[in-house]
User: Fold this.
Amino acid sequence: MRNHVYFFDTTLRDGEQSPGATMNLQEKLALARQMEKLGVDVIEAGFPASSPGDFEAVKAIAAQVRGLQVAGLARCLEKDIDHCWEAVKVGENPRIHIFLSTSPLHMEYKLRNSPEDVIKMIGDGVRRCVSYTGNVEFSAEDASRSDRDFLCRVAETAIKAGARVINLPDTVGYAQPEEFAALVRYVIENTPQSDKAIFSVHCHDDLGLGVANTLAALRIGARQAEVTLNGIGERAGNASLEEVAMALSVRRDYFGLTHSIVTEQLYPSCRMLSMTIGRPIPGHKAIVGENAFAHESGVHQDGMLKNRETYEIMTPQSVGRAGSSLVIGKHSGRNAVRSRFEGMGFKLDETELNVLFEAVKKLADRKKTLHDDDLMALVHEEIYRMPDRYRLRHVSVQSSDGGGVPPTAAVIMDVDGQEKRGAGFGAGPVDALFNVIADLVGRETELEQYSINAITGGTDALGEVTVRLNAGACTATGRGAHPDILVASARAYVNALNSLAKLETEKHEKNC
Ligand code: KIV
Ligand code: ZN
Assistant:
């Protein structure tokens, strides 16, 4: 396996640190199951000590997902490590991933510890992890701005203490590909017993070089890539899994490296994430964007017709972009519906199947053919909703051209179990709707983002609305899907209000 690259996916941890990308337990579980199908080697399911919600999510994923390693993140602190182990220990091959900063800047200003203290903390921390499991990864945070000889001491200490993976992150996305590869090579070549560990990289995208830096390091000997779906992550994000995997596959001649990613599952995985966090994939995004395989210019179309390799370096099928042939509509039976959902990675119990079957029938009355994206939206609407404090019952909206009666909305909803009714005006129909809902729930929030996306083609397409609300230090995202975009807007708004209420109750550290 000398030339094999291990994929470590941190969508559920670093990815979730991306503003507005909070996921609930059910959503995380579904994504983790999809990652099993995708063939990732390790998933970092969360940071158990950061919040009770993260702890529960990591524990549930470790208990339920098989066929891959589940890792939890921990600082180099006894209580973090113990907590992390409690969460991951039920997993098949659980991993504890600890980190500590090693750059002069971080040691002096963030940790306020001397380099010698840091070396001691690393040794003690790794030994504590090893008392639980041999599957230990150590990350030298801000490695790309650390002294290279100090990094060798750090790696040596961690390896001696028992770490089997040494991760060198470009935490702030500062490195340049050749420089980063040279640093990783230096550490591998100058750390005693470096052959006892797998070297890993974790590159952020602040200068748009996350993927380039990852690939450069893999080329010279790193064998684990820490990545996220769609490249989501802290600030500008992380190196994107689909881009790294396809670069290794398409340019096998150049890298000479193998991996276990099932590339046909790339698009379904990225699409699932995008639906889950309510963030559309940009059209021009490599591998999974709407336009990644679209050929617009006449010259290109002509070339494609003569030989597709003139303008295509990989097929849409190779990344899972061919549509499914099993059409779901009004006349589909329960088994067909179950099997379609299972094919998309959702394991449903009988109650969930009943709920979805009803929802499929209802939607099929308004829309002839249901595509995977429509079905995925139904799962998010009907199954993954968090227990709601606010529940929308009916909306009615009147548009206006500005003369006479202004745009008007009437809403009936439940607030803490009590039915409330209200009506009001706004600058436009969405504004009217949101004003009435805000009045009924009795709270003010700032609308940070409103976006609407037609799921699948046709005028009967489902409209998917994403709303981001801000209230003081808390931000929450909500989604709603419906063939009527005003109903979808109201659902998204209420969904965001419910998420906000939940975040505030939990005092979710990362988001509040
Ligand atoms: O960016 C970073 O350094 C991290 C570490 C915790 C691995 O996310
Ligand atoms: Zn990171």
User: Anything to note?
Assistant: The CA atoms of residues 356 and 382 lie 7 Å apart. The chain has three domains: 6-277, 334-382, 390-511. Residues 390-511 form a domain with the Double Stranded RNA Binding Domain fold (CATH 3.30.160.270). The pocket of zinc ion (ligand 2) is lined by residues 14, 169, 171, 202, 204, 234 (CB under 6 Å).
